[in-house]
Amino acid sequence: QVQLVESGGDLVQPGGSLRLSCSASGFNFSHFAMNWYRQAPGKERELVAAITSDGFNAGYADSVKGRFTISRDDAKSTAYLAMNSLKPEDTALYLCNAFERTLSGVYEYWGQGTQVTVSS
Prior knowledge:
By secondary structure, the protein is an all-beta fold. It has strands spanning 3-7, 11-12, 18-25, 33-39, 46-51, 58-60, 68-73, 78-83, 92-102, 105-110, 114-118.
């Protein structure tokens, strides 16, 4: 059974930090690119950060560049999103996504999300 379970969301003051975790099971984690998306009420889902399956390349939305860092630990089948200098506009449900494209097709899995609220 494929599972992606996010954790680490919380209420934090502006300027604070959080580290989100995405624990995977039921598939070959090391073969998949891992992505973090976020969705705020009334807004479209936004790709925040992505890391390749080999962990060598990562990319970020302009809105979080320099503040967020994505990483992965294949031994633990876990992806992380370290978030610093948080702003109220970072408030959203953060979702973990696993993605693999092969010759036989595309495989994509989603977690249920973890809520991040940035407020004083």
